[in-house]
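Recall the central idea of this unit: under ordinary conditions, the amino acid sequence of a chain determines the structure it adopts. In this exercise we apply that idea directly, starting from the sequence alone.
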Amino acid sequence: MPFAIALAVLAVELSPAHALVTGPVLTAAPALAALTMGPKGTLAAAGLALAVNVATATYNHAWGTQQVFGNLLGLLLVSVASVTMSNAVRTRRQSELDQVRKIAVAAQEVILRPVPERLGPLHAASLSLAAGTGAQVGGDLYEAVQSPYGVRIIVGDVRGKGLAAVRAVAVALGAFREAVHYEDDLVEVMNHCSAALRREVAVSGAYDQEVLIEGFTTALMAQVPREPVVHLVNRGHPPPLLLHQDAIQPLTPSTPMPPLGLEDLVAGPPEAPETYPFAPGDRLLLYTDGVIEARNADNEFFALPEAMAALRALTPSEFLEELHQALVRHTGGQLSDDVAMILVDRTDEEVGVQVSPAADLSRDRPR
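Accordingly, the structure predicted from this sequence is:
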């Protein structure tokens, strides 16, 4: 609108109707720009208005008249006031947004706590990156827990962002953290998370209609027992990558299953986890689709297997930091989706007390 006003005034002044008084109209351009365009936009509108004023005064041979100098003085005063106001509003809005971002990040860090560096026979590290510049938190989730049945890990991705996604993340993680200590079957742990999400969605008024119709959660669970294997249950999630010696292998499920919330698409959940070798010296990366779907300026996807192979000599925390920097370089610092990752290395020795599955946990089991 400010630029349209300036161009309209220019058209009037260059036409036979130039006798109309358009100077006061021109001073409205920077004032309108200050409402929405920020200091730079306000300066641009003021500069265009000034250029139109000078050009039309020259074209109509009006220099030296009181009207021209009055128009210039009014435009100058309004422009200074508009730029000052725009800068103050922008500073206040940025301060408010920064505060909201801090609250959002703090809330997400409470839900997504970093995994311990050592879990049983594993060295571990985690990473979570939020996409976008707003204050919304994402729907990625992860957790790693040492249970009586081995180290159990979950990585998932709730569709959507904002409070609805955060609620779903909290529900899924709460169900996982509880069930891992009591269910010996990893499939049943996944079923607990699915049931918890269904109960949450069933709460009247908790979610809008779009979430109820299209909401789902992809999830991947891994269990690392004392034996040199890893058990996986995959519900529509990108397969983890296993680094064994110099080879990268995606652990793709033999029977693809739908995400949590879309169980009606199949006859039933998997009956048993799938098992893969996971020997000392091997490395396993669990991640969300924000990693492999990150694109560069040429619309090319991020080559995660190649990056994992190149960084294999680093510790888990160093690996994730280097991978973070590689993602930043690949995308130019503009992630299109949230990112969550857990990296675990299998070692020869186990640290910490491993609770026996035979231990009497019945007295603590929820009833």
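The radius of gyration is 30 Å.
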